[in-house]
Amino acid sequence: MVDFFVDELDLAGLGFVRSAAARTGRPGYHPAVMLKLFIYGYLNRIPSSCGLEREAGRNVELMWLTGRLAPDHKTIADFRRDNGPGIRRTCAQFVELCRRIGVLKGACIAIDGSKFRAVNSRDRIFTKGKIANRIADLEADAGRYIAEMVRVDRQEEGEVRAEKVAHLAKRYGRVRQHIQHLQAMDRALADAPDGQISLTDPDARAMATCARNSGMVGYKVQTAVDAETHLIVAYDVTNQGHDRDLLVPMAAAAKEALHRDEIHVLADKGYFSGRQILTCYEAGITTTIPRPETSGNRAKGLYVKADFAYEADADFYRCPAGEALTYRYTTEEDGLELRRYWTGECGGCPIKARCTTDKERRITRWAREHLIEAARARLIGPTEPMTVRRGTVEHPFGTIKAWMGATHFLTRRLRNVRTEMALNVLAYNIKRMVALIGIRGLMAAVKG
Question: Which terminus of the chain is more exposed, N or C, with fewer CB under 10 A?
Fold first, then answer.
């Protein structure tokens, strides 16, 4: 099946280099051979170039697939590095194949992100706060060394004293050298756009995790997964730890890959953004996203905005005490049109203490709030969209991470990590299609 699929590809059109041999010199490995090698490797959990080099010389399936060619690990790694755009287009080509044969319809898409480790330890990434703390610790160490040298010089005599003082002076010199290095790095942080410097992988970033006082250095992988087939329709890799401005790019990429005029997108509250929801609506993308509760009033036993019922026909809010908060004026903040509502009856309200400490309780409503209210109505529907979302988009992440094992991306720099993720996504989609229509069905689809 891998052999059929790669042979049907227009490798030159997809952007693979050396797809046509030069007129002089010894011909290099054809991109088709190398691509087959990589697809087989990721299908069988052999992603490393050294592992593929070993398997090409002893694995009978690979010997047949590559025509008994056995490239060395450097050649294999260079192919992945130099043909990133072609590999990513190949992944998109397989998604197009799934859509063309009718397996992938894409009426409902679930979007989510997950953090993957990079080739960079936490000790090799620096922020301004981390540098300041480390310099303070080193300054304290330097002070202790000076105090110890003074004590030894006063209390001890002879060669022992000279030897100890020399040893302490050497350690003090290393500490001062380390401090100077950190100070130079602190000055370089002024030019870093996000306030981080990563030494091993310059594009990797420190990201917070659910564990308290913990984190990881890595990348955030975004996927858009079809709710019916669990095929990954679109993906991306970023080095930002949040999802707030990624709803539109991922939804638009999924819509383009599916060639649909309208799609329905499910996402968690990390993607919630009024502007993003509006942009999706204007592009024919229906979004179902829970609204995060940013106020801490509910935990204090106070009323929140959700406790005020909006009556659209009369354009006012009904408070928990039954009073009507009428429309007063419209303002604009950060490019959003906002409407203000309040009532003058709060002064004598018996439950005012649970509502506000101001003169009256004011409610702000976005002019396009009806889009958020429609999404909230879909959330409580019989289909349980958030349950569908969890069962759809988290499954591929778990599968891919299980294939990778307790490890990290093998490549460095964002462009190379995107290529590596494309191979993971392609392998996942191929296995998923085999589970859906079988090997013979997939081979017939490729040939057709």
Answer: C
